[in-house]
Design brief:
single chain, alpha+beta, YefM-like fold
Length: 66
Amino acid sequence: MRKVTFTEAILNPVKAFEAAANGPILITRRNRCAAVILSVDEYERLTKLNVAEPVPARPRRRLIPR
């Protein structure tokens, strides 16, 4: 799986989307996995397999102590 930083994806989104035709693209932000870009064909294949179930969002950390 190819990795692209969030900044690279923002600066050149067309390149990131075109690269997704060859396989999933992992978007990283602050050295952590943030998102994945899939081709439509790959997404449809995964949903037909019932593999791509929604993942619950991670709760945000509270920056101000209670």
